[in-house]
Amino acid sequence: MAQYNYAFQGFNKELMARAVARDVEVSYKQAIEICNYLRHRKLANAKATLERVMEKKQAIPFKRFVNGLGHKPGKMTSGRYPVKASGTFLKLLESIEANAQTKGLNTNELEIVHICSHKSARQPHYGRNGGRQFKRCHIEVVVAETTEKEKGKKEEKKKAPKGKENKKE
Fold first, then answer.
1. What is the bridge-based pairing of β-strands 137-145 and 110-119?
2. Can you say whether the dihedral through the CA atoms of 105, 109, 115, 121 is positive or negative?
3. Tens digits of pLDDT across the chain (169 residues)
4. pTM given for the model
5. Under a CB-based contact definition with an 8 Å cutoff, are residues 61 and 79 in contact?
6. Are 151 and 157 in contact (CB under 8 A)?
């Protein structure tokens, strides 16, 4: 099997872990929406969210592919409960947690830095359904260990004044 080239640039082997799921039978559109929802979340929160989605207690908000979607309870407009896709993502997140644990990273402080999906080759169905094709995609995830110091630096950057306040009158 050939080596996979990740889309993420700037991978640090000491502080990050990564995993990829190739040719998974998940709709590309659902994978994009789940990726957008899970990006920059803690790994434990992301896993808990996916478990609630599989139980149909929490919906994933769909913002891009919304044609004909109805509103869901709560503060979201349109959304779905992608159960099968959530199961695949959950397996991938458990895999990346195991990869991080093997590297010696603290699994309680892992944050999803990069998560994206790419279209895969579309294999045709067998038999009478030969004209139809399977929906498949590749999913890649990169997590990094975050500390309290890094969080403080991020908050300071966000609080820095901009615009008129810095200009001298």
1. antiparallel
2. positive
3. 688 899 999 999 999 999 999 999 999 999 999 999 999 999 999 999 999 999 999 999 999 988 888 888 888 889 999 999 999 999 999 999 999 999 999 999 999 999 999 999 888 888 888 788 899 999 999 999 987 656 666 666 666 666 655 555 4
4. 0.84
5. yes
6. no
Residue 96 C-beta-side C-alpha neighbours within 13 Å: 30
For the domain 16-165, what is the CATH code? 3.90.470.10
Which amino acid appears at position 31 of this protein?
A: A
Every domain of the chain and the residues it spans: 16-165
| pLDDT tens sequence across 69-103 | 888 888 888 999 999 999 999 999 999 999 999 99
| Tokens standing for residue 34 | 């789940």
Query: What are 21's two structure tokens?
Result: 């799921």
HSE-up (13 A, CA, CB side) for residue 132: 8
